[in-house]
Automatic annotation (TrEMBL):
This is DNA-binding GntR family transcriptional regulator. Coiled coil: none annotated. It holds the Pfam family GntR. PANTHER family: GNTR-FAMILY TRANSCRIPTIONAL REGULATOR, MANNOSYL-D-GLYCERATE TRANSPORT/METABOLISM SYSTEM REPRESSOR MNGR-RELATED. GO terms for biological process: negative regulation of DNA-templated transcription.
Amino acid sequence: MNGPERKKYNPDNKTGYEYVLLADHLAGFIERGEWRPGSRLPGERALSEEYGVALDTIRKATQILRERGLVTTLKSKGTFVSEPK
């Protein structure tokens, strides 16, 4: 997959729910500007395969990003990085 290196996610050295750790990891790409406002995040299935986690874990992580105001999800379109507030 093209784009920022995502394979460096390693929850083994941290404690907490995996979906929260993954949300923090993905938020880092947005906060560092590696994923710019308006850019589309990889699909849920692609992220699930890439990180070796269940689809529900990806969905919960994406929900956290939405709650933080970092992304917006448009039905049948995808999840996009929000403009900074």
